[in-house]
C-alpha cells in the first residue's frame, strides 16, 4: 500500500499546497454505451441529474451503477424519484410485475445494501433514489469496517473514488452556496477566549441532545481501500438526536454516551484530525465527523480542487507574529487545507484565508514559539438557526445551480 495522499508539497525550501486539480469528467451520450442494459443506463441517467448534484453521464458513473445494482435491481430503481418516493405497488405497476415478486428486492436494496432510501413501514413504505454523494456513498459504507468489508463493498469504494477524482462536483461550486458544514477549533486553542461562542464548543453543542451514536468514517475507509491509508482512527463519524436514534434502530451506528463522544473527539484530535458539525443550530438532529485533509471528501474539495465555497467561513483565523516566527514550516506542514505557504530560505509566510477553516492546528504546531494566535473574524456569520432557515436559503440556490448545470450539459 502507498501512504496517505499528499496535501502539502515540499519543493526545495517551499512548503505549501499542491497544484489544484481540475474537472476531468467526460460527458457521453446514451448511444456511447451500446452494450449496457437499458435499465442500468436509465439509472445512470437519473443519478446524473443536476437536482441530485450528479456527475455527467460518463464511464465512471456507468461503472459505479453497473456494480451497485444488479439487472433486476436496476429495473426497479429506474422508476424511483427523489421527492416523495414510490410505493412497491407503484413500482410493480411501472415494471409490469407482481408486488410479491419485487418487494424482497426493494427491501434488500433499502435495508441491506442501503443503496436507496425508504420511509414508512409495512404496506406504507415508499422508496426513492439517493444522490451519489452525499447519500449513497455514505449509507452503503457506513455499516462497514476494513475487516468486515466484502469484495463488493471494496469495489464500490474503488469506483466511488474513481468518480470523485474526476472533479465533477466542481460544476456545482458557487461562492453564494449556503455552506452545509463548519469546522470547530481544536480543543485548547480557544481556552478562555472572550470571543468564543457556545457554537464554537463541541461540549456545548452536545449538551442539546440526549441520544448519540457513532460509526466508521466512510472517507477514511475508502482511502484505505484505494491504497492511501492514513493513521487517523476510523470510528469517529457521529450523529446526535433523532439521527442517532434512527442509526441505532436501523443498525448502522453504535450507541454511545455524550462522554464517549468527547473522548472519541479528543483521541481524534491527538491524531491531527479536526471536527466538523453541520452548519445548523438544530436541537433535533446534528452530525459530526473528525476529518483529515488527505481523506475527507469535503476537505479535499478545498485542498485538492480549490473549491472553498463548500465549507462555512470560520469564526477564528490565525494571526502570525512575524517577530516570533522562525519560518520553520511546522504550521504549513500541519495545516490540513494547504492554507499556509512557508519559504524556509527566504523567511516568508503567506496565509490564504479562502482555504482556512479556522481549526487551530497551526497554533498547536507552533506551541514552542507561540507565533500563531487564533483571532475572531469581524464579519463572522452565525450558523443557521434551524433546518427551515437552511432549506429556505438552499432551495433557490439549488434550483439555479441545477438549471445552469443542465443548460451547460
Given as residue ranges, the uncertain stretches (5+ residues, pLDDT < 50) are: none
User: How much of the polypeptide forms β-strand, as a percent range?
Assistant: 15-25%
Please, how many helices?
15
Main β-sheet, in a few words? 6 strands, antiparallel
Helix content, binned percent:
25-40%
CATH class of the domain at 30-131 and 147-167: Mainly Alpha
What letter string, H or E per element, gives the SSE order?
A: EEHHHEHHEEHHEHEHEHEHEEHEHEEHEH
The number of strands is: 15
The coarse overall form would be: globular
User: N-to-C terminal Cα separation, in Å?
Assistant: 38 Å
Reported CATH architecture of the domain at 30-131 and 147-167: Orthogonal Bundle
Rg for CA atoms:
22 Å
- At the fold tier of CATH, the topology name of the domain at 30-131 and 147-167 is Arc Repressor Mutant, subunit A
Q: What structural category characterises the helix and strand content?
A: alpha+beta
**Biggest sheet: strand arrangement:** 6-10-11-8-7-9
Mean pLDDT: 92
What is the topological layout?
Elements: E1 8-11, E2 14-17, H1 38-47, H2 59-68, H3 71-77, E3 86-87, H4 88-95, H5 99-113, E4 117-119, E5 126-128, H6 132-141, H7 151-164, E6 181-184, H8 202-206, E7 212-216, H9 218-225, E8 235-241, H10 242-250, E9 254-256, H11 258-270, E10 274-278, E11 285-291, H12 297-303, E12 316-320, H13 330-334, E13 340-343, E14 348-351, H14 361-365, E15 372-376, H15 387-408
Helix pairs in contact: 1-2, 1-3, 2-7, 3-5, 4-5, 7-9
Amino acid at each position: 500500500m502507498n501512504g496517505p495522499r499528499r496535501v502539502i508539497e515540499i519543493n526545495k525550501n517551499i512548503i505549501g499546497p499542491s497544484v489544484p486539480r481540475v474537472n476531468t469528467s467526460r460527458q457521453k451520450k446514451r448511444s456511447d454505451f451500446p452494450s449496457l442494459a437499458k435499465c442500468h443506463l436509465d439509472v445512470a441517467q437519473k443519478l446524473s441529474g443536476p437536482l441530485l448534484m450528479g456527475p455527467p453521464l460518463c464511464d465512471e458513473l456507468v461503472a459505479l451503477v453497473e456494480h451497485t445494482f444488479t439487472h433486476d435491481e436496476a429495473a426497479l430503481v429506474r422508476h424511483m424519484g427523489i421527492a416523495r418516493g414510490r410505493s412497491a405497488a407503484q413500482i410493480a405497476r411501472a415494471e409490469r410485475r407482481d408486488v410479491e415478486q419485487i418487494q424482497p428486492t426493494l427491501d434488500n436494496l433499502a435495508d441491506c445494501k442501503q443503496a436507496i432510501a425508504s420511509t414508512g413501514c409495512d404496506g406504507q413504505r415508499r422508496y426513492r433514489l439517493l444522490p451519489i454523494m452525499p447519500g449513497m456513498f455514505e449509507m452503503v459504507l457506513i455499516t462497514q469496517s476494513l475487516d468486515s468489508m466484502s469484495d463488493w463493498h471494496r469495489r464500490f469504494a474503488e469506483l466511488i473514488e474513481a468518480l470523485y477524482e474526476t472533479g465533477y462536483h466542481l460544476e456545482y461550486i458557487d461562492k453564494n452556496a449556503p455552506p452545509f458544514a463548519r469546522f470547530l477549533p481544536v480543543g485548547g486553542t480557544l481556552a478562555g477566549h472572550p470571543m468564543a461562542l457556545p457554537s464554537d464548543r463541541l461540549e456545548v453543542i452536545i449538551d442539546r441532545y440526549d441520544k448519540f451514536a457513532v460509526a466508521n468514517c466512510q472517507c477514511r475507509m475508502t482511502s484505505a481501500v484505494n491504497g492511501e491509508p492514513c493513521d487517523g482512527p476510523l470510528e469517529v463519524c457521529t450523529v446526535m438526536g433523532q439521527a442517532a436514534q434512527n442509526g441505532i434502530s436501523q443498525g448502522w451506528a453504535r450507541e454511545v454516551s455524550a462522554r464517549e463522544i468527547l473522548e472519541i473527539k479528543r483521541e481524534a484530535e491527538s491524531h491531527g484530525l479536526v471536527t466538523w458539525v453541520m452548519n445548523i443550530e438544530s436541537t433535533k438532529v446534528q452530525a459530526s465527523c473528525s476529518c483529515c485533509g488527505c481523506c475527507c471528501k469535503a476537505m479535499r474539495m478545498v485542498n485538492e480542487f480549490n473549491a472553498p465555497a463548500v465549507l462555512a467561513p470560520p469564526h477564528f483565523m490565525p494571526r502570525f507574529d512575524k517577530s516570533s516566527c522562525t519560518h520553520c514550516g511546522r504550521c504549513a506542514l500541519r495545516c490540513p487545507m494547504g492554507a499556509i505557504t512557508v519559504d524556509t530560505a527566504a523567511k516568508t509566510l503567506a496565509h490564504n484565508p479562502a482555504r482556512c477553516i479556522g481549526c487551530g492546528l497551526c497554533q498547536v504546531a507552533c506551541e514552542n514559539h507561540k507565533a500563531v494566535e487564533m483571532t475572531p473574524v469581524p464579519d463572522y456569520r452565525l450558523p443557521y438557526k434551524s433546518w427551515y432557515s437552511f432549506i429556505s436559503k438552499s432551495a433557490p440556490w439549488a434550483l439555479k445551480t441545477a438549471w445552469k448545470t443542465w443548460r451547460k450539459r
